[in-house]
């Protein structure tokens, strides 16, 4: 079993490669008998991204609780064009803030209460995911791009309290092909990121504000996309061009999830008991107008929407422990 703390890996020079095991049996879901209708609670709210809009939808009320665009922030005057085509949203800081990024080149942290921007940067290179590091800094995964800024993980310094918001300073970068996700693992103090047909584990040196590759693990299939914690488990949801998996952060086993909507899934978000596991399954190109659950249930449809991610507004102890 991987040790709980692996800061010693900073001294490791050899990069190892291991196969991701497929697991003994897939989890079988019965789509013809999805069970009783879900009774929504006050806690069932999810954040989503839809082109230039970030929103929070309340399933119980059936209403939009909150909406934000770059035009809502005076800080982003002159930068709005970098915040088109949002492709990631993550609740952080006890669900008081949202991390977002856009393939147009911009990333930001938005304070929900007053819609203020606490951080923004312009990584370019088609940013596809963003994560909060344990020292409060930010890491961004850029993907395949023609501007010379893609295929990297970039670390940015978060402004300190009292500083004016500004285009954040990049402190370091490492190569990471076709980056689509970054997840901080607080159990092992490492950053996980996929790169097409592999998943990589990085150590983070807080003093130098740099990432260092520790291990590369082969995946059962290519075109990895989603990587996000499974609520209440020491595992991550992993999607590829063909399948949905649960990835065990200790054994590196990939347990395949069987079902109707498994190919090219962009997002998976699970929650406490009673919460459906939400997925974004593209109906056209890379987007959808409907938020489904993993059993095929429909939870929100918005005509002409282009949803790309939808995540429950709940704490994430996998990445951000209470202490």
SSE arrangement:
Elements lengths: L15 E4 L25 E6 L2 E6 L4 E6 L17 E7 L4 E6 L4 E5 L4 E6 L5 E6 L5 E5 L9 E5 L13 E6 L7 E3 L4 E6 L2 E8 L4 E9 L8 E3 L5 E5 L4 E5 L5 E4 L9 E3 L8 E3 L9 E4 L4 E4 L5 E6 L11
Parallel strand pairs: 1-16
Antiparallel strand pairs: 2-3, 2-25, 3-4, 5-6, 6-7, 7-8, 9-10, 10-11, 11-12, 13-14, 14-15, 15-16, 17-18, 18-19, 19-20, 21-22, 22-23, 23-24
Gist?
The strands form 6 sheets. This protein has a 5-stranded mixed sheet, with no helix packed on it. The model is unreliable at 1-19 and 26-31 (pLDDT under 50).
Report on this structure.
The protein is mostly beta strands. 0% of the residues lie in helices and 41% in strands. Strands 1-16-15-14-13 form a 5-stranded mixed sheet, with no helix packed on it. The chain has a 4-stranded antiparallel sheet with strand order 4-3-2-25, with no helix packed on it. The radius of gyration is 19 Å and the shape is globular. It starts with 15 loop residues before the first strand and ends in an 11-residue tail after the last strand.
């Amino acid at each position: 079993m991987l040790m709980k703390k692996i800061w010693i890996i900073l001294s490791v020079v050899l990069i190892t490669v291991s196969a991701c095991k497929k697991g003994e049996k897939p989890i079988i879901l019965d789509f013809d008998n999805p069970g009783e209708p879900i009774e929504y609670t006050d806690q069932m709210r999810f954040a989503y991204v839809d082109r230039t809009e970030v929103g929070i939808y309340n399933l119980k009320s059936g209403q939009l609780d909150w909406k934000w665009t770059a035009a809502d922030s005076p800080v982003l005057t002159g930068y709005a064009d970098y915040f088109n085509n949002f492709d990631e949203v993550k609740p952080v800081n006890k669900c008081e803030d949202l991390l977002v990024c856009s393939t147009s080149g911009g990333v930001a942290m938005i304070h929900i209460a007053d819609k203020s921007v606490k951080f923004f940067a312009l990584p370019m290179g088609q940013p596809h995911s963003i994560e909060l590091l344990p020292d409060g800094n930010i890491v961004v995964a850029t993907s395949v791009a023609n501007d010379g800024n893609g295929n990297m993980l970039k670390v940015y310094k978060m402004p300190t309290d009292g500083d004016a918001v500004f285009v954040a300073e990049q402190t370091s970068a490492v190569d990471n092909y076709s980056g689509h996700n970054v997840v901080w693992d607080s159990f092992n103090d490492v950053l996980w990121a996929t790169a097409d047909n592999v998943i990589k584990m990085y150590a983070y040196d807080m003093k130098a504000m740099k990432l260092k590759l520790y291990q590369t693990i082969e995946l059962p299939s290519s075109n990895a996309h989603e990587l996000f914690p499974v609520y209440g488990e020491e595992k991550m949801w992993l999607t590829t061009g063909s399948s949905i998996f649960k990835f065990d952060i200790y054994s590196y086993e990939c347990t395949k999830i069987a079902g109707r909507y498994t190919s090219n899934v962009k997002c998976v978000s699970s929650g406490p008991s009673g919460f459906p596991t939400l997925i974004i399954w593209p109906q056209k190109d890379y987007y959808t107008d409907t938020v489904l659950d993993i059993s095929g249930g429909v939870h929100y449809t918005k005509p002409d929407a282009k949803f790309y991610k939808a995540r429950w507004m709940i704490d994430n102890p996998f990445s951000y422990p209470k202490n």
